[in-house]
Amino acid sequence: MNLEEYKGVYVFAQQVDGVISNIAFELLGKAKDLASDLNTEVTAVLVGSGIKDLADQLAEYGADKVIVVDDPELKEYRTEPYTHALASVINEYKPEIMLVGATAIGRDLGPRVSARVQTGLTADCTVLEIGNFPLVARPGQEQKPNQLLMTRPAFGGNTIATIACPDNRPQMATVRAGVMQKIKRITGAKANVIEFNPGFTPNDKYVEILNIVKEVKDIVDIAEAKILVSGGRGVGSAENFKLLEDLAEVLGGTVSCSRAVVDDGWKPKELQVGQTGKTVRPQVYFAIGISGAIQHTAGMEESDIIVAINKDENAPIFDVADYGLVGDLNKIVPLLTQALKTEIANK
Amino acid sequence: MKIVVCIKQVPDTKGGVKFNPDGTLDRGAMLTIMNPDDKAGLEAALRLKDQYGAEVTVLTMGLPKAEEVLREAIAMGADKGILVTDRVLGGADTWATSTTIAGALRNIDYDLIITGRQAIDGDTAQVGPQISEHLDIPVISYAQDIKIDGDYVIVQRQYEDRYHELKAKMPCLVTALSELNEPRYMTPGGIFDAFDKEITVWGRNDLKDVDDSNLGLKGSPTKIAKASDKVRKGAGEKVSLDPDEAVKYLVGKLEEKHVI
Predict the structure, then answer these.
(1) ipTM topping 0.90
(2) Are A157 and B234 within 8 A, CB to CB?
(3) Model confidence over A151-164: pLDDT tens digits?
(4) Distance CA B226, CA B236 (A)
(5) Which residues in chain A have their CB less than 8 angstroms from residue B139's CB?
(6) Which one of A110, A168, B118, B234 is most buried, counting C-beta atoms within 10 A?
(7) 3.40.50.720, 3.40.30.10, 3.30.428.10, 3.40.50.1220: which CATH number matches A222-345?
(8) Whether B226 and A105 lie within 8 Å, measured CB to CB
């Protein structure tokens, strides 16, 4: 493998039903930073059927080039034809970095593609930067500059590791949704489109889709919320979440929860924040009756302002909170709701 | 039908994580369990065995101690256990792990391979799909239901907002979600069998069609640059006040920050 041949930062621009997933725009935002450090370009890879029209949207969020792989076999996501598409793009265009969203699609596609093109893959990254590997020069080992340093949580968020892929290309990472920032949309930007079709010949690996069952969920996406009012087991019961809902309503926010609340069946899994739930970074995060196990804080500590309300003054949530109130949530939360209501009405 | 279930012995992160003074993980001080997604995969295999008749082999890669999870699996109803263990396999990333397991699987007849979606120590979800690529067979990840129809496996494949019902010709690899089922307990007879049964132990030389350059720490394309206990954001202010005072304090702060 001649590493010098590999150039450019590439993003797998996930689309489902002809709609580009938000993660694609987030990845483009990060790719732009990395490309500027490396003095190179950002390329989006758009895979699907009848999706060429979506390319300009990718340009509006920072793609310099868009490679479109459009084929009827790619109408719905299936591992094999999508792997063939992305692996063929990599073999043809030789990117130095390939970013994929850590979604239910990306976490299947990423490993299969990395095995096919014989490179490493780092899962569920939360920080990506360019730097030296090894970080500090070691005698007897070449220190390589301009490597992708990929940071990810492991052991349920208890440890954090930074990983490099110094001897193989592309350097591949899947990236958690909700962590990277998309750029401000450049309205009217036009994509430089390259069409590429490696040919798709169905074989036994092209599994057959018998049925697609969409689960209509009348649930807001907590990752998009500006204000989250999050409850833990300390809230006491499903009914008592009413206190949190009232507070959220006053602030135009959304209710979310910790894992314990989902385990107890008080709230659905879609509202869960944390390592096994969603990563969120709202402007304000209220942690109410949440002790703050690392599995939880791993999913919310990037919030701009964290408010914790807990009766246990030693609860670890206070270690990450900007403002911590030690006390009974049953007393404090209704008073807070009332006070905010009055305050907002007076403005 | 022959089913192989790949399982992993993992530290039980629920019980908290213990560190050595140098900041590395003290695996010896932590309890170990069969990885939850793998256990669901094993249960799915045992249910297929109950329903259609099948031979279920469990395979693990790890330290010699990992034999414990194979015995647990046999006590639940698996027929055979294979332990892949060798010093040269240590320090493997997902690439080197998947080449190793694929090398072991090439020695076995299988119709269906089941792995857990991901292990709770690494959370990568990569090894299952990578094994399938090395073996050049189809993969269906994130299975929430598995059925057999002749030479085909029919799987509900979960996504964020939908599921696909997929049909794949066997041999095929399926990765299981822990939501798939509630794993059974070990049976007294099974526990008796488990201690009686011989576990097959394979080392480097038993792996088929694998180059040394793809094994262990040396054969891992990803390298750890730095690993550390998580650095947490510093604590802010903490107050213990009467509820009225506490609310006044907080409203003041939220105004200061232009939240309201």
Answers:
(1) no
(2) no
(3) 998 776 667 899 99
(4) 28
(5) 79, 108, 112
(6) A110
(7) 3.40.50.1220
(8) no
